[in-house]
Amino acid sequence: MELQLRDHTEGKLQPSQERLAEKALAQAAERLDVPEQAEMSLTFVLNPEIRELNRDYRGIDRATDVISFAIEDDDDLANLPAEIRAELPVELGDLVISIDKVTEQALFLNHSADRELGYLLVHGFLHLNGYDHEEPADEEKMFTLQEEILDGLGLSR
User: Which of 2, 11, 56, 144 has the fewest CB atoms within 10 Å, measured from its CB?
Assistant: First the structure.
């Protein structure tokens, strides 16, 4: 999977956090059997930027921890021949994570910033791949998978 990583944190993002992001997303992609030609972006921001995105796209005027913008819509590709679809990159979408919220929530929840970052990465990635937690059965499925991936990264609760 191709990952485009952007850092809008004015120096707050640590190299170890970038490495964790790459590792967590690669492991999640492998677990979900995401095609190698899949593409996504990950942008790390500060609270003011994610607050603006949250307000503009979700109508909620406060900072949040992660926002997922899924791009791929299978309906758009359904009319193309299978051999052409197989050659096209799979556009998963964009994740935006507030590095400020990673720190705040890790302190509040009394666990490591790595655990919090891993959680947000995997949670957002699952949303990009069609998982949600609107219904109890879907929530159980998503959260179980999420914890299994985090356990595999050594980021257990």
Answer: 11
